[in-house]
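Below is how a single chain appears once it has passed through the pipeline. First comes the sequence as given, then the structure the pipeline wrote out for it. We keep one example in the README because the format questions we get most often are answered faster by looking than by reading.
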Amino acid sequence: MERRQIRLLRGLVNVSLLSLIFGAILNLLSSLLGNYYALAVGTLVVLLTFYCYRRADAADSSSLTYSLWRNLPTLLFIVVPVLVYWYGSDASWTVTEILLLVQVATSYLLPILCLLYVERRLKKAQQ
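Resulting structure:
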């Protein structure tokens, strides 16, 4: 595969990751904060994530720096809120809460993890 094609594919993966993170933030926060605040927070999160991805691109794909900059936004903005919600509930889980967790895991967490893996493999192929 040519270097230009790999760069294009990495760009598409990054756009997909940013849109998934933005969608996850909007989905999780719109009921808690309201639509306008969720939109503002989502935009801020996407900008911070984009900054982290740009910092990761400057590092070698096998370095710890790359892994930290690449995975930090996902951990901070997606995984941590889900874990806080999950462990913060003292009462027994209702079917609605279980379905919400499954929906978030299958709609956001799994695709984001898969795209992070694909991007890492493309970066290694590009080097």
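Residues 3-126 form one domain.

See the next section for the split statistics.
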